[in-house]
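ok so dumb question maybe but i'm new to this and my supervisor (M.) told me to 'just get the structure for Nodulin-like domain-containing protein' and walked off. so i did the thing. is this what she meant?? sequence i used:
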Amino acid sequence: MVLAFAAAGGVAAEVLTARFARQVVSGRWFTLFACLMILSASGATYAFGIYSRALRSSLGYDQRAVATLAFFKDLGSNVGVPAGLLSEVAPPWAVLAVGAAMNLAGYLMVYLSLAGRVARPPLWLMCAYVCAGANSQAFAGTGALVTCVRNFPETRGAVLGLLKGYVGLSSAVLAQLYLALYGGSDARSLVLLIAWLPAAVSVAFLATVRVVPRQKAARGGGGGGGDVFFCLLYISVALAAYILVMIVVQRQVSFSRAAYAASAAGLLVLLFLPLAVVVRQEYRIMKEIEESLTSSAPTTVTVIEKTATASPISESEPPPVAAAASTGTRPLSSSSSRLGAFLRHAFSPPAHGEDYSIPQALVSVDMLILFAAIACGAGGTLTAIDNMGQIGQSLGYPPETVDAFVSLISVWNYAGRVAAGYASEYLLARYGFPRPLALTAVLAASCAGHLLIATGAPGGALYAASVLVGFCFGAQWPLLYAVISELFGLKRYPTLYNLGAIASPVGAYVLNVRVAGRLYDAEAARQHGGAPPAAGGGGDKTCVGVECFRRSFLIITAATAAGALVSLVLVWRTREFYRGDIYARFRDAAVAGEELPCTGGSVAEQQPSQVEIESTEVNEMPIGVLS
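this is what came out, is it supposed to look like this??
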């Protein structure tokens, strides 16, 4: 026992040093932890179902106006092209800083409008506030997801599933913190929490989110870290289970403010528990480096100077410009020739898995198929999530039960994201199961949830519907982002993954605003004996009964089934690609300690141009030898 205490004391002495702290904070594993914390507070858009009733009561909006606000919320959270373009030229901390500012400004104005601190804004201005606040989620997602995919390219399925899982849990996390801080008495206080907390978390971790140079990451634990990801998975499962238990208990037992504070304290412990896994992994890396210095054979390093050599030009052949001048012709520089060259480039895409340019991806048949499938699938499930409050109200559920539905959707949203990320990664690596086929299965399963809502079956049917809808909505995102990174490469990934996400608000606008909102208001007007109100606030006419959403969700079911059939075309087009080892070049580059083709070009294009380093055991070199 004395030896055990001595060993523990020695480990503590090694860990509690400034040198080890710098190693932890500068490593890619701490970047992953920081991104988990940022995303765990960034999913405020999924809490819209809780405070949408406050929008109706405080501002006098009808269902079509609320659906319009929901559309602009979805538009802001999914149109991340500005965030992607900024990520192409700026470091991750700049992307996160812009997102934090937009979150604070947008949701603070929503809170002030609900609280009556400012004049009642017109609908278009409230749409702008909601869109700006929700767009911060796109900046947070771009800064976190793209950074972690570039840091862990060979395990991107697990990375995306884990990160998007925390996004799925975030609205439930915010709800629990809201109960502890404000007592859950007023939905306006929830909007205030949404305004300041995500911005504060992003600012706190700004300096630690960065792309770690691959040569540094490859030495000492440069592999995929599968055991670490499974530890993080188990912690996230425990977090989701804890939230689920708290939701159920809080609906059965009357909690005091102290009880809410105690439950929030347990939540925070689980939220920060991944930091212990990060510290353990960095300690393991430090010991591996020390062992390589003391026990491995000396590493031979040969430095070969290279000189830049110009491409040989025959003395008998004049340069192209001189040749054009001697023949009296001018080089092709007209706008028509440039347009022709652009079109030839756009419509001549590389093979699957190579780096596409943005124009090549935009006109790609594969991207169009993905866009159509996600517009139908995510648009339908998002319509169900945004209207869950009105669905429960129309079917006669009490308000506290409706809030439980929204929180349960958040938990199952998490489950779908994590399950899709980890399971698709395992099935792909073990059996070569193509990820687009997993997307097809998710879309087919979501049809069952839509049918349960359409039928309005009694009993626990809406509970089952919330489980299916939340799970299938969450499962679509890691699959979409992983497929985009696999088919179109990582060079333009920040922009391309945001382009794919635009499909969600497009589908939500058609299915939510034009279908569900219009049909709900028409049924409400029929029940109240009047014409449907004009969008923007013609009065709150509540609809009651199964007919409020029956036709809407029958249409959504048909659209989702069509999306599943469209996705089968992508399965057929990519069948040969997924039969091969699509991650081979990333593993080979990690073993060789080379810069991966994550930020533009192939491995060969990113090797040093002046100095070539040859080593017999380069993967065992300590940090600093090649830096």
